Amino acid sequence: xxxxxxxxxxxxxxxxxxxxxxxxxxxxxxxxxxxxxxxxxxxxxxxxxxxxxxxxxxxxxxxxxxxxxxxxxxxxxxxxxxxxxxxxxxxxxxxxxxxxxxxxxxxxxxxxxxxxxxxxxxxxxxxxxxxxxxxxxxxxxxxxxxxxxxxxxxxxxxxxxxxxxxxxxxxxxxxxxxxxxxxxxxxxxxxxxxxxxxxxxxxxxxxxxxxxxxxxxxxxxxxxxx
Length: 226
Description:
The protein has 226 residues and is mainly α.
């Protein structure tokens, strides 16, 4: 879209200059480039939808996470991890000098969907852990769900890797995006999100939207201090 638009305007200027001196019988002249010019409106719609959809999707994901977890700390930590994975994959797109077209717009949807998966599973295990201290909660999450998300990451990466053999550039882009998203999302979820939960993961009712954190500590809670 960004490459074709300047060329379109240049030729449009040539046509307007020709019309200014052409006889009346030739005033209906217009430029044509088969499907390239006609498809520009669709490409623009895809790119605008991608730009507007990402912030809306992140906001919606945050609301859903907040309702599901009922904890503001968990919701913010998960959204931060998703945002980091999303920005990292976008950086890969920029470094490869890809223009934001139809393929890239569809890839952005794939990025958001894949980057949510691993972090949400770890967060769910953390929330419903029977342990009281955040360190043991996160250990249980790694133990119970770590193998599952690793297996899912390997399976998704393998499925995306087969697209490298495709002749169409569209599928090659899908392969790069899927593989990069899986690797980055897995690393961010297991390392970055895990580190955040180890440092300030919620314990007791801290961060719970139904209760407020208090400064009261019982003698039983002394051993769970940082």
